[in-house]
From TrEMBL:
<feature type="domain" description="HEPN">
    <location>
        <begin position="14"/>
        <end position="131"/>
    </location>
</feature>
<protein>
    <submittedName>
        <fullName>HEPN domain protein</fullName>
    </submittedName>
</protein>
<dbReference type="InterPro" id="IPR007842">
    <property type="entry name" value="HEPN_dom"/>
</dbReference>
<dbReference type="Pfam" id="PF05168">
    <property type="entry name" value="HEPN"/>
</dbReference>
Amino acid sequence: MKQVHNKADVMAWLVKAQDDLRFAESVLNDTFYSHVCFICQQSAEKALKGLIYSLQEDFSLAEIRKLKTHNLGLLLKLAKQRGVSIPQDVNEACAILDRYYMSTRYPDVPDPIGLYTKEIAHEAFAKAKEIFGFVDNLLQP
């Protein structure tokens, strides 16, 4: 990784992402499986935003607006546009977690999953950890 820009902002995003992971892990074996899936999506989103903020010093207003998204696929695209090579497993992990942003929280949103299970929650947690690890490795000196 080249020079890391916006170090304080990047660290703030990564701390929040890691806090989300720690919380998800602490309730992983309770029955709040949809909540775990949502928190895992949030962890991945924050990690990716931290990565993007590390890639350039200043952002235009239009770029900042794009960063307000919750879509992990779009965040990956923004990282790619800034020169980050995204492995297929990270793309797949983001696609899985993207399904959990809305359907885990709102009863009137079509749910592609159906009943959230312990297995689904564990998979979400593993995918979020994978994405966090990917970002963390990229940001190492």
